[in-house]
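Q: Here's a chain of 158 amino acids. Please give me its 3D structure as tokens.
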Amino acid sequence: MIRKLLSLTVAMAASLYGIYSVAEEDVPAASDIGVLGVGINVSDLARSEKFYTEVFGLVRTFRFPPEGNLQEVGLARPGEGMNIILAHFNDDPVPAGSTSYGRIVFSTADAKAVAALASERGSTIRNVGTPGPTNPVIIFFDDPDGYQIELYQAPPSQ
């Protein structure tokens, strides 16, 4: 069910935040460069991987190193490229302030259902956007390490 609900789309974020599109002639010569994913440091790799797979329906796309002591995992929606890289290199706590850099934004068809899953796994829901039948649903919560997650559900078509 979650796999049907979630869709990470640049177009949705672009339209939500008013990001302009770039004309093809404005693209630098190195147009084969793309964003592979967002990497975050986590204090407990297994716990974080479980959270992101259970709440967002992400699946493991790679592990590093391939054998031995696991330090990184890549997670993505099934059939999509990399989205999130979780890294744990030592047992030091996540550095103070590092989780306040911004937020990870997911688009979804049912933000309240995804938020309920996150709540069941220990997240505190902080904001449910502006209520109203023609407004988007925007919900905020933190992952297990304190990284801010935003869910965005587009308003219904008129």
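Q: Can you summarize the key feature?
A: The chain has one domain: 2-18+36-153.
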